Amino acid sequence: MKKRLYLGILLIAALSVFLVNPLFANELSHLLDGKVFVGNNGEKGGALDPDEHEEIIFQNGRFKSVSCDPYNFDSSEYTATRVGNAIHFNAVTESPSHGKIAWQGVVEGNLADVTFVWTKERWYWDIRREYWFQGKLKK
Questions:
Q1: In angstroms, rounded to a whole number, what is the distance separating the alpha carbons of residues 79 and 98?
Q2: pLDDT tens digits, residue range 123-132?
């Protein structure tokens, strides 16, 4: 019983250092900085659309979708964690007039597989569309 309690306290202390330490948290949020991926996207359940060119940018702890610029979606902070050889990331971009896009993806080597959900709430109906993106590291 004492051993289990001691291990629990040790685990809580270790997690506290991990979650509270700003240097470590900052390091996690910048794992993809400097990387740009280019490719195509399409609606979930369908093929990638050759006319839907996408470029996603990770810079200074922020995520940006170039194809969303015409709709006034701002860049946003992203979070990233390393899982084995892959880096998993999440971001939410917002537009004052076009709603939100929740992004989640996996970067492994020079490839990015990303899904994103665009939502826009209106008083008469809501929009919710799911998309996917596959891209390669831009050289």
A1: 23
A2: 888 999 999 9
Residue pair 93/74 in contact (Cβ under 8 Å)? The answer is yes
Burial class of residue 98 (count of CB atoms within 10 Å of its CB; 0-12, 13-18, 19+) = middle
Contact 19, 29 (CB under 8 A): no
Tell me the two tokens of residue 111.
């490839």
Start-end of H helices in the chain: 2-20, 22-29
Please give the model's pTM, rounded to 2 decimal places.
0.77
Query: How is residue 16 written in tokens?
Result: 């506290």
Total domain count, the chain:
2
Boundaries of domain holding 14: 1-30
